[in-house]
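Task card 7
Instruction: Convert sequence to structure tokens.
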Amino acid sequence: MTVYFIGAGPGAADLITVRGARTLAACQVCLYAGSLVPRELLAECPPDARLVDTARSDLDEITAELLRAHEQGHDVARLHSGDPSVFSAVAEQMRRLDAAQVPYEVVPGVPASAAAAASLKREPTVPTVGQTVILTRVANRATAMPEGEGLATLGRGGALIVLHLAARYVDRVVAELLPHYGADCPAAVVAYASRPEELIIRGTLDEIARQVKEADVLRTAVITVGRTLGAEQFRDSHLYSPERERHLR
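Output:
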């Protein structure tokens, strides 16, 4: 058997990849984060599949389910919201499976940051304006940030910053980024990206905290800060330039 860590996408059920949907349809067991993964995706599972909502499960309980499926010879779809490579707590599960010598694979998905950029109709990387995107979060009581990865440090280069899991800490985000980005820097918050209840907030760094509080956004949101959000005057990329040499093969 194999455990498949599948990125379910940012919220809309049809944003799962074709590979993810096909893998889901072939697994006899599905563990899913019920608080984040759209239930419509469960219709892709086989009719007789064992479905386990892990929203209230701890790591030991999740691991026990995976090991039980392994002992029974069943493939497992482990559905995670977004993409497994970004703040998904997959690493600790893979470490447990490595120790138990249980095989697993990872099926990538659409991350919330990509869905947010699509909703904003903005390309995070714009020629001559910004070519770097930083995906990060802020420290909280549960998990501290490693040394050197605080916003005050990451913001020094002025790159576009995309923050997950940070809406309730928006005041701190603004305070730490203002010295590097300036009050007039474009900022945006997308809550529930790609879902019917999606909410988009646009503004500048000095006003985004007030807007977020007025909208009562506390979770399931992506904060984006950077000059590329408002870029209008920039050079066309070299990729499609008529001056670029193109050789037919």
